[in-house]
Design a protein that fits this description.
heterooctamer; A: mainly beta; five-stranded mixed β-sheet; 39% strand
Chain lengths: 66, 257, 257, 66, 257, 257, 66, 66
C-alpha cells in the first residue's frame, strides 16, 4: 500500500502506476489529464509513471472558464 | 473577421463560459450570439464523476472552438503544466496563457508571463497571452513566438471597460499587423464597440455576459456591438472637432423673418 | 422599439439625410440599415425644377417615415413658419423643432425653443424638440405638450459623443416614461450604444454616417450598435467594481507547484 | 406689373395672387409650400393671397436634412 | 486678481460660509485662506434673538466683502424680494442670484433667472447670476446687464468637479472679457486649479471646504490651488501631445554598450 | 513633506533641469519655486571645456539636492555604468533609474529596470526607479531593495497628465507606506494636485515647467498646486455624490411667494 | 387686535404698522430686513406700512450661506 | 602612439593610462567621471587603467537633466 495524495486528499492505494490508480479510483471516462508532483504526465505515459509514497497526483477534466 | 495562427474565426467575440446561472443558459448564449471561440478551463475530477465529460459533450454539440486558459496560475510551472494538461484534454494547441501576479487585480505577472510563453511557444503551443498594455512586454512576447496579444482593458470581472485608452491605441499603432484582443474588464457593449473602433481585432469577455440579468440577450448584444465597432473601424469614421457643422445645408434656406 | 406620439418605430436609429456623397449612397444607407425614420428639410425651389419632387419620390419609394426639421432657424417666427410649410409638403404633423441660438455651437436657444414649441403644440403639431441637457427646460417642454425630448450629446456634426453624461443620466431618471432621443454630436457606434445603455430610447444622427468613408456600412454599424445598446439596457448589465473577480472558478483548481 | 421678391430674387409679375404666380413661374409639381412675407400660406389659400409690391414670396420643396 | 463690477478682489476663491462645524472654524478658514469675498444669506429672525447681529459682527471683524445669495428661491418674486432685503441688511448691491429649478439638482431655472436678473439689474443691483453652462442663456444675461457670469461645474454640494469641460471652454472663448466664475460642484483643489487653467477668473465653493475633515487646512489648499491655476493660465502651459519627448538632451550622451 | 531613504525633502515638487530657455531662467525657477531636489544628468565633456563645472557650481550655489538620472539608457549595462559615473561626479548615491524600452513612448523596460535596480541596490545605491503603473513590477522593485517608486503618469514630455488613474490608485492602496512619486507626463498644476490628492508623496516633472511660456511663474504654480493637493489629501476631502446638497440651510428660509 | 403671521407663525398684535410690530415683538438690533406679503418693505417705510388681518410679515437677518 | 576613441572620436595618444589621457587632452577641472569600454573607472583607478588600441573612453560631466 502506498500513501499518496490524489487531488489533495490523502489516500492509500495498491496501484503501482498512474494508469492503475485511475482505474482503481473509478475514473470512467478519459476526458482527463494528469500531473504527478506538478509535472504533466501524458496519457500514454501513465503506465510507466510509477507511484511513490507522498506523491501528489492531480487528475483534471474540462470545466467552464473565463 | 479575425485570424489567429492562420485560423479564421467567425465572430470577434471570444466568450468565457464560467459563472452562468445554468449550463442551459450558457449553451443558449453561445448559440444565440453565434460565438465561434469559447474559453474553457480544467479542474480536479473525482473518480466516478462525469462532470468533465458532460461539459466536453456540450462543446462538441455546439461545434465551437475552445481556447483553454491557465486561470489562477501564479507560477510559471503551474501555468506550463496546466497548458500541457489542457492540450491533451481539449485536443488543441491554443492556450490562453495567464500568469497572475496579484490576487486583487488578477493582473498578469509580466515576468512569469514572458517566461511561460517562451517555454510554451518552444513546445509548439499557440499562445494567446493575457498581458498588460505595456508596449515593451508586448514586444517581448512577439519576439519569443506569440502571434496574438491579449492586453487587458481593466481588471477581470470589474466591468470598468478600457482604463488606459492611450496605451491601447499605442499598442495598436505599434503592431499594426498583430492580432490584438482586448481581454478582461469589458462591462458593456459600448466598451466592446469602442475597442473594435480603435482597431482591435477581437474582444474576450465573460462576466459581463454571464452575470447580466439576461445572459442570452447580453451575449447577442455584444456580438452586435463588436460587429458594429469593426464595421465602423473599416468604414473610416469622422474625426472629432470642436466646432459644430450644420448637417442640413444652409444654402437655399427660405428667408422667413 | 421606441414609440413616439403613439406610433411605433421599427429602428431606434433616426437618420439624417444630408451631406451624403450621392443620393444613391443615401438610399443604400437607409435601406441597408433598415432605417424607419429619416429627417428631412425644405429649401427654395425654382420654377421648372424637379429637385424637391425627386427627393419626395425617393422617400415614397423607401417607404420611410419623415421627420421634417426647422434647421437653421434662429427665430420663433422662422421656426413656426418652416414647420407649417413642412407639414403641408411632407404630409406629417411631426416636426423636429430646432431654434438655434448660436452659429458656432448650433445649440438650441431654449427661450425660443419653448415659445415655438408652445405655438406648434397648440397648432396640433407633434413636436420633437432639439434641446439641451437642461432638466428645467425639459420640464417646460413637457408641460406645454411635447411628448418626446431630443437633448444633444454635443454640438451638431462635432462627433464628440456625449459631453455631459451626468446630465443625460439625470434627465433619464427624472422622466422615466418620456421617450428620450440623443440628437446631435454622436460620432461613432460606441457613442450610440452608450446612449442606449443609459436608457435612451433612440439616437438621431447624420454627419457620422454621411461623412464616413463608407456611409452604407457605417449606417448598418449604427443600427447594430443601437440595437446592442438597447438589448444591454434591458438585459441588466453588471455593475462596475474596483476589485477584480475571477471568472474561472478557483474551487477545484489543481495544485501544481 | 408688380415688383416683388421670389425666393430672394427681384422679379416683376402680372400675377395678382400666389397661385397665379406659381403658374406663371413654371412650377410644375406641387410638392411645394409657400410663405408670404414670412407667413405660411396654405395650398388652398394661395388664390386668395393677393400680391403687393415689395412682397417677399418663398416657395420651398423637400430636400435632405439632418 | 479678478475684478467684478469695477471692484478688485484679492483672492479668486470666493467662499461660502454655511455648513462649517463651528463659527470659529469658519472664521479661521476665512482668515487662514485670506479670503476676500464670502457668500452669505438671510433667514427668519425671532424677536430678542441676536443671531443675525453676531454673524454680522463676525463679517465686520473679518473685513471681508459679502456676496448675499438668494438660495432656495424657486420663483422670480422670491428671488427679487430676497435680493432687496439682502441689499438693505448687508449694505451691498452685489447679489448672487439663484433661481432654482429643481430640488434634486439645485440647478438654475434659466427662465426665472433671466427674468429676475432683468428686474434686479434695472433696480441697480450688481448681479452675479448662478447659471448653467448654456451659451445662449449666458448671452441673454449679459445683454440685460449682468457683468459677471457664474456657471455651475456640477450640482451644488456634489463635489463632482467640472462635468462639461467642453461647454465651459466654449463659454470662456465666446466671452473673453467677461469675468467668469465656476460656482458649485467643486470637490477638490485640483478641480479648482483646472477651472483657473481654463481661464476662469474665480471659483466659488462652500461644501468642499466646510465638510472637509479639516476645513481650515482645506480652505488654504483651495487658495493655493486657485492661485496655481491662475498663474499657470498666464504662464502659457505646454500643449498635450501624443508622442513622448525626451526632457534630458540626447546629444552628447556617452556611448556605454 | 516627503521622505526618501530617510532624508526629509522640503518640497514635494522634484524638478527637472533640462530644456529651459536659459540657465538664468532655470536658476530663477528653482529659487522662486523653492525646489529642494533637482534631477540632473551627464554628458560627454571635451578637454578644456568648463560646461560641466559651471553647471556644478550652479548646483552648489543653489544648495539643492541632486537626483542624477540615467536618461536615454536602453540597456542594463548602460544604466549601471551611468549610475556609477553619476555617483562619483555628483557625490550622491541617489539615482533616478531609467531603463528605456521604446523611443516613441520613452517608457520603462520593466525587465531591464528590475535587473539594473537589483545591481544598483546591491552596490549601495538608493534607487528611484522610473517605472510603469504595473503593481507586480512595483512589488519586484520593492523586494530587491528600492524604497521609493516613481510610476509614470503618461509619456515623458507629453503633458497628458495621469492616463490611468485607477492603476495609480491601486498602487497607492497596495503600498501605503512606500514613498510614491508620479514621474513624467504631468502637464499642468491641476494634474500635479490630482496626484497629490490621490495620496502620492511627490511629483517629478520637467517639460511642463521648462517649456511653458514663463517657466519661473509655472514652477511656482506647481509648488503651490502640489502643496494644495497634499493639504487636501490630509484634510480629508468630501466624497462625490450624485445628488445636489444645499449649502445654504433651508430651515428658517423666509416665505415670500 | 390684528391676527397675522410673523415668520410663518400666527400671532395677534396691537401694532398698527410694521415698525410698531418689530418693537412690540422685542427686536433689539436692526440688522434686519422686512417683507409684507412677499413684498420688500424698506427700513424707512416700515412706519407707513400698515398691517391688516391675515398679513404675512417676514423679518430676516444675516446668516451663513453658500 | 595608441589609436583609440575618446567620446566617440578617433584620436592618437601617447598616454598610457586614463589619468594621463585626461591630462594630455586638457581637462582642467575634475567634475568628471570616466568609463573604459563601457565599464566605469573610479577616479582613483584612472592611473592603473592602462589604455590599448581601439579602446573606447568616455569622459562625462554634469549637465541639466529631466
Amino acid at each position: 500500500m502506498i500513501d499518496l495524495y490524489l487531488n489533495g486528499e490523502a489516500i492509500s492505494t495498491d496501484a503501482e502506476n498512474l494508469a492503475a490508480l485511475l482505474q482503481d479510483c473509478g475514473y470512467e471516462h478519459d476526458r482527463l489529464a494528469t500531473a504527478l508532483n506538478g509535472i504533466f504526465v501524458h496519457r500514454e505515459s501513465r503506465t510507466s509513471a510509477r507511484l511513490s509514497p507522498g506523491d501528489r497526483v492531480e487528475v483534471v477534466s474540462p470545466i467552464e472558464g473565463g | 473577421m479575425p485570424e489567429f495562427y492562420n485560423e479564421h474565426v467567425q465572430n470577434a467575440l471570444l466568450l468565457g463560459t464560467a459563472r452562468y446561472p445554468s449550463p442551459t443558459i450558457l449553451e443558449d448564449a453561445i448559440r444565440s450570439a453565434e460565438v465561434d471561440v469559447i474559453t474553457v478551463s480544467l479542474r480536479r475530477e473525482s473518480g466516478g464523476s462525469n462532470a468533465g465529460q458532460h461539459f466536453w459533450e456540450m462543446i462538441k454539440r455546439l461545434g465551437v472552438r475552445v481556447l483553454p486558459n491557465t486561470a489562477s496560475c501564479y507560477s510559471v510551472k503551474e501555468a506550463v503544466t496546466t497548458a500541457q494538461m489542457a492540450r491533451e484534454v481539449f485536443e488543441t494547441d491554443w492556450v490562453k496563457l495567464e500568469v497572475i501576479g496579484n490576487p486583487d487585480t488578477l493582473q498578469p505577472d509580466v515576468f512569469g508571463l514572458v517566461e511561460a510563453a517562451r517555454i510554451l511557444c518552444a513546445d509548439g503551443f499557440r499562445v494567446f497571452p493575457y498581458t498588460t498594455e505595456d508596449l515593451v512586454v508586448a514586444d517581448r512576447l512577439l519576439q519569443i513566438g506569440c502571434e496574438v496579444l491579449m492586453p487587458w482593458g481593466s481588471p477581470i470581472g470589474s466591468g470598468q471597460g478600457i482604463n488606459n485608452e492611450f496605451a491601447l491605441r499605442t499598442l495598436r499603432s505599434h503592431f499594426p499587423d498583430v492580432p490584438l484582443v482586448v481581454d478582461a474588464g469589458i462591462g458593456r457593449p459600448s466598451h466592446a464597440a469602442q475597442a473594435m473602433e480603435m482597431g482591435f481585432d477581437a474582444v474576450l469577455l465573460n462576466t459581463a455576459v454571464a452575470r447580466a440579468g439576461d445572459p442570452v440577450s447580453m451575449a447577442k448584444a455584444f456580438t452586435e456591438a463588436i460587429s458594429a465597432g469593426r464595421s465602423a473601424f473599416l468604414a473610416n469614421p469622422i474625426e472629432q472637432n470642436d466646432m459644430a457643422e450644420p448637417s442640413t445645408p444652409v444654402l437655399g434656406k427660405a428667408f422667413l423673418s
